[in-house]
Amino acid sequence: MLTTVQLIDRYYAAFNAGHWEDFFALLTDDVSHDINQGGRESGKPAFRRFIDQMNACYREQIVDIQILCNADGTRAAAEYTVLGTYLNTDEGLPPARGQTYRLPGGAFFDIRDGKVSRVTNYYNLQNWLHQVGA
């Protein structure tokens, strides 16, 4: 169990630091990524494209992270707060004007061979839209 908690802790530490090679090294090659209120993408290349798009439009830090995992370390969950700035307009969303937001969120993970094999992210999109003035 401690190993899984450490893995998820490293996942968020790499995200917050923008150390993308370290971040992607924590994922299986066939990682599944369930996008909040969207579809499922598979594989590191798709996840990299997603992160590139996010980095172009948002600057985010994940704070107040609480990590839970099951007894055998194959599943984990994290509850957190996203501190963000909306930098550039994302397709289909309101115009970006440097709005800041503070948003509760969560993620669910599958772990295989010491790496993240699935991540499902959730946050309240309506809350975010309200905060950025939509």
* CATH-defined topology: Nuclear Transport Factor 2, Chain: A
Structural class determined from secondary elements: alpha+beta
Strand content: 35-45%
Element pattern in H and E = HHEEHEEEEH
Mean pLDDT: 95
Largest sheet: 6 strands, mixed
Supply Rg: 15 Å
Overall geometric form: globular
Number of domains: 1
What strand line-up does the widest sheet have? 2-1-6-5-4-3
Helical residues, percent: 25-40%
Could you name the CATH class? Alpha Beta
Write up what this structure looks like:
The chain is an alpha+beta fold and about 130 residues long. It has a single domain, classed as Nuclear Transport Factor 2, Chain: A (Roll), CATH 3.10.450. It has helices at about 1-15, 20-25, 45-55, 125-130, and strands at about 25-35, 40, 60-70, 75-85, 100-110, 115-125. The protein has a six-stranded mixed β-sheet. The termini are far apart. The mean pLDDT is about 95.
Outline the secondary-structure elements.
Layout: H1 2-17, H2 20-25, E1 27-34, E2 40-42, H3 44-57, E3 58-69, E4 75-86, E5 100-112, E6 115-123, H4 125-131
Parallel strand pairs: 1-6
Antiparallel strand pairs: 1-2, 3-4, 4-5, 5-6
Structure summary:
This protein has 134 residues and is an alpha+beta fold. Helices cover 32% and strands 43% of the residues. The protein contains four helices and six strands, in the order H-H-E-E-H-E-E-E-E-H.
